[in-house]
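Worked example
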Amino acid sequence: MSDWSPATYLRFADERTRPARDLLAAVPLATARHILDVGCGPGNSTELLLARFPDAEVVGVDTSPAMIEAARARVPGARFQVADAATVAPDRPPDLVFANAVMQWVPDHPSVLVRLLGLLAPGGCLAVQMPDTLGEPSHRLMDETAAAMPFASKMAGAGRPPLLTLDGYYDRLSPAAGRVDLWRTTYVHPLDGPDAVVEWVSSTGLKPYLDPLDPGERSAFLADYLARIRRAYPPAADGRVLLRYPRLFIVAERQGSSP
């Protein structure tokens, strides 16, 4: 895939940062010395972590060089490196591993979550948020549009696999955790019309569908997808459209004394 676009991602910065704030608010740690921000993106989550734990050493990792460059410019008080959540190896056991809106992209992410929990210092915390949106029109229509295109084979496997159930994550994490807290929240974002829905997903879920296409194919796909989005998201009384966006949250504490 081509690199991720920090500028496109941050066009909805407030809406995308709100779940990170909600996740951080549920972290029970009073202090943290070493924090790993997995999938830090352009640094919006890292900024929150430093504000909550100003004395901590915070390391942000992401697979995207463009995101890491943007994060370094945004949060000079943290360290950043290009690394994969599945293989990242921190210098020392972190007190907090924070993973906001990234693990849904990681192959076999339930096993990776177990691995990240095992990296923690005793009493440390794993905090995870993942979009749980595959049942929403914004994401169902990606597959429907792809299947309707004469070049559908180019987009085979573009959709990400579904998340586990809450029970599934609990069963995977609880053997190594002193406590596992799970919940699901549906955010409702008023956006300025169907085009804004397409813009929202263009930097995230839609990207794997668009990357394999040539410019003409991309235009045809987007025109068809936008037409379907217009039918699926009728305007509210004020002319805006409401984008429902469910997200799944996990806060797991490793057994042992708190840092």
